[in-house]
Specification:
Chain B: Its main location: membrane. The complex is a heterodimer. By secondary structure, chain A is mainly α. Helices cover 58% and strands 1% of the residues of chain A. Chain B contains 14 helices and 17 strands. In chain B, helix 4 (186-200) packs across helix 7. Classes of the chains: A mainly alpha, B alpha/beta.
């Protein structure tokens, strides 16, 4: 007879793993990735591939040579995910060397300086993106127009829906909004109407498909995406009702990085609150900040900053917002 | 009808109820029976026999060692071999009485007939008399924890019992002993419930059963159809529904406050199905608690089954009856895979709380190496007590006892849902147990000073 194995209970484990969750999110990003290939062709392929490979290389090198850890985390899917999300936040004509700098900042500063997977305070992909946005404002705000499949850095650029909205608010002239594609074409992808933007923001529908997949696979819960999108919808609806220079709520939620941010960036496990009450507070605050930055801030896009600001508040939310304990409701 | 369940957290582990439809067999008598002196929560018992004494089946061998205690009766006839120590489910050597089995001679006062005694036929049974008989028979909770049953029936003066809830949930994977008991002895269990209700002076009894046991639900519903006092409550499958607090929440929609509150503080007395059966036997048949229904199971056992086992039987004899220990290294559990105790020896005996002997193979038993916490919050969402397991585990590992006490670590029921769910395979519950036992010690010391 063999030996008896002894340990504390539980003696069973579910089938969940870090890899399943990370690769699950990667799979959820596939529809959006395919749409970005369809709209931006070569440029999108170069940007995404560079970003993913650079993130993985930096993750591997830092783990091995600086942190000197035995077990690398390069294949757990988190670096791939950071790379993809970073790529999705970039214009498809961005030169390779800038992308590599972005990946270094995302993985090196955004993630590994804090101790690697699970320890970072801010979403690494957004750290990378915002670093590039303030360092290379010209390259990071010229958005290629969709449909130029063979083009890379030579692609023609155009105005994004968000910059049109900003112009309308600045000029106080609601007729400027007439240049916007209608919200249906924003939802299914605005290539046909000459839309421009970063890779991950041109087709809200593909991102929503990813959301449904992640909810079905129980990778994330509904709290963060729904609270962000709901808040933005309600507030922009109010603003539009008060003054029509603010775009209508459907256009607002389907444009810019809102869907990408609400579904894939704000829901990052590591940097979002640990219980559903906290997640709702976090989501509503991100929605509010997004509206404020988009309409009255210096940048046309507010999602990234809103998420980073709320990332900083996550530890505070975790300290003060606790889940409902059993026994708090004593009688019905 | 809206099928009820508890309202916070919970998981759904693979059921593996491979022995569900296997009728109970009577296990062979052991050659030697081992009776650890502490088989319940509370003070250990004091032996009343010595080496060389002759005992019969049903002879008192150890008396209650305090108020919270329960006497132990011999399950075999024979000679006391020694009063010494033996390894029990905790892995420690504990004081125990060891009896060499000779024949099978029973004490005469035990009614061994199968005839069903109903409560109506015994008007002489007052609540006090029922409680006394339960106490004398050494009945304890049969679901695992093993709290002496009579104490639950005498609530503190600050609380008032309103109902008795029979725990027929059996949410642990693999185990089917309660299910077999219901299918084979439904009438006795119902009389047992009536006895418990009379003893606790309440008019309402519930039987909570998960919907994965439709035949048991149907059988008991049919048998109680003429009795408005007893209600069978089908419950949606969810682990740990068999936890006392979760069951009370599921059945009567009341949540027991944080410890030291107990279910009777919200009016509920919870008893296991096996306990109801033992109560019936103790009160109606004058049969002390010395045998029980136990499932012997495991995917790699050649003949798993359900057994009526004399307590004190070493687990090795049960496993041999099921085709022997499978090749290679195994994990032997007293109980199921979620909350069972891994044993250090195959000679550990079946005790009052042993509802299952489960054999798990090495590849199922070995833990994966832990990865960093990715703060996915899944442990928080599955915790049935609404705690934050990741926080309790981390603070415990840093020995921050004030923090874990403030975060409610004493409410943890150690169900293991957090660790089961953790995608990073972190030993969450190991750390929480460390914190919980330390904090309990600190609280006891603090109370002792007052």
């Amino acid at each position: 007879m063999g030996k008896l194995i002894v340990s504390l209970s539980p003696h069973a484990h579910g089938t969940d793993s870090v890899e399943k969750n990370m690769y699950g999110v990667v799979i959820a990003l596939v529809p959006a990735l395919l749409v970005s290939f369809y709209f931006f062709g070569l440029g999108s392929a170069i940007v995404c591939a560079t970003s993913v490979v650079a993130c993985m290389v930096f993750e591997w090198a830092i783990t091995k040579f600086i942190l000197k850890r035995e077990n690398g985390t390069v294949m757990d899917g988190s670096a791939i995910l950071t790379g993809l999300l970073l790529g999705f936040n970039l214009p498809s004509n961005l030169p390779i060397w800038i992308i590599i700098i972005g990946a270094l900042v995302a993985i090196g500063i955004g993630k590994m300086t804090f101790g690697g997977l699970g320890c970072n305070l801010f979403n690494p992909a957004l750290v990378g993106r915002c670093f590039l946005l303030v360092s290379f404002p010209a390259q990071m705000t010229s958005w290629p127009v969709a449909g130029q499949l063979g083009a890379y850095t030579d692609a023609m650029t155009g105005a994004t829906p968000l910059s049109v909205m900003k112009d309308a608010i600045k000029s106080g002239d609601a007729s400027v909004l007439g240049q916007l594609p209608d919200s249906l074409s924003l939802l299914i992808g605005n290539a046909g109407s000459g839309g421009a933007g970063c890779l991950g923001e041109v087709c809200a529908l593909a991102l929503l498909v990813g959301l449904v997949f992640m909810l079905w696979k129980k990778i994330i819960t509904w709290h963060i995406p729904v609270s962000i999108i709901g808040t933005v919808f309600v507030l922009s609806g109010l603003l539009h009702f008060i003054n029509p220079v603010y775009a209508d709520p459907f256009t607002v939620i389907f444009s810019g990085g809102l869907m990408l941010g609400a579904i894939f960036m704000a829901t990052d496990y590591v940097t979002s609150p640990m219980n559903s009450r906290g997640q709702l507070i976090y989501g509503v605050a991100i929605g509010l900040l997004t509206i404020v930055i988009r309409n009255w801030g210096a940048y046309p896009e507010g999602m990234s900053f809103a998420i980073l600001i709320m990332n900083a508040f996550t530890p505070l939310i975790n300290t003060y917002v606790k889940p409902k304990r059993f026994g708090e409701v004593v009688k019905k | 009808m809206n099928i009820r369940t508890f309202r916070i957290g919970g998981i759904h582990p693979e059921e593996n109820k491979i022995t569900a439809e296997m009728p109970t067999q009577v296990a062979a008598l052991p050659k030697q029976a081992i009776f650890p002196l502490s088989q319940h929560i509370g003070a250990p018992t004091k032996p009343v026999v010595k080496k060389g004494d002759k005992v019969k089946v049903g002879t008192l061998i150890a008396e209650a060692g305090g108020f919270v205690s329960a006497p132990i009766y011999s399950s075999v006839s024979g000679t006391v071999f020694k009063v010494d120590t033996a390894i029990d489910a905790t892995g420690y050597r504990v004081p125990a009485i060891i009896i060499n089995v000779e024949g099978d001679e029973w004490e005469e006062n035990i009614d061994r007939s199968d005839s069903l005694e109903t409560l109506d036929a015994h008007p002489e049974l007052t609540p006090e008399e029922i409680v006394e008989r339960i106490k004398v028979a050494g009945v304890t909770g049969m679901g695992g924890a093993g709290f002496p049953t009579f104490i639950k029936l005498c609530p503190p003066p600050t609380a008032k019992a309103e109902c008795v809830i029979i725990n027929a949930v059996e949410c642990e994977p693999y185990i089917t002993s309660d299910y077999r008991l219901m299918m084979e002895h439904a009438d006795e269990i119902l009389v047992g419930l009536e006895l418990l209700m009379k003893a606790a002076k309440v008019d309402k009894g519930y039987i909570g059963i998960e919907t994965n046991k439709p035949q048991a639900i149907e059988l008991l519903t049919q048998k109680t159809s003429g009795n408005p006092k007893i209600e069978v409550v089908p419950l949606k499958q969810r682990y740990p529904q068999g936890g006392e607090k979760q069951l009370v929440d599921a059945v009567i929609r009341r949540q027991v406050p944080a410890p030291p509150a107990i279910p009777v503080n919200v009016g509920a007395i919870v008893q296991n199905v096996g306990t109801a059966f033992a109560v019936y036997q103790a009160v109606m048949k004058r049969k002390p608690l010395f045998e029980r229904y136990t499932t012997v199971t495991g995917k790699r056992l050649s003949n798993p089954g359900n057994f009526l086992v004399r307590m004190g039987t070493p687990m090795k004899e049960l496993i041999d009856a099921c085709g022997g220990m499978p090749e290679g290294n195994n994990k032997l559990l007293a109980g199921g895979p979620m909350m069972g105790k891994a044993l250090t020896s195959v000679d550990v005996p079946v005790c009052k709380g042993t509802n299952s002997v489960t054999v798990i193979s090495e590849d199922e038993a070995m833990r994966k190496s832990p990865q960093p916490c990715i703060r996915c919050a899944k442990c928080v969402s599955v915790c049935p007590m609404g705690l934050e397991p990741f926080l309790l585990a981390t603070a415990s590992s840093m020995h921050n006892w004030e923090k874990v006490e403030a975060e409610g670590i004493t409410s943890c029921i150690e169900c293991g849902s957090c660790q089961f769910t953790c995608p990073s395979h972190r030993p969450i519950l190991d750390n929480i147990r460390l914190g919980k036992s330390t904090v309990m010690g600190i609280i006891r010391a603090r109370n002792a000073k007052k």
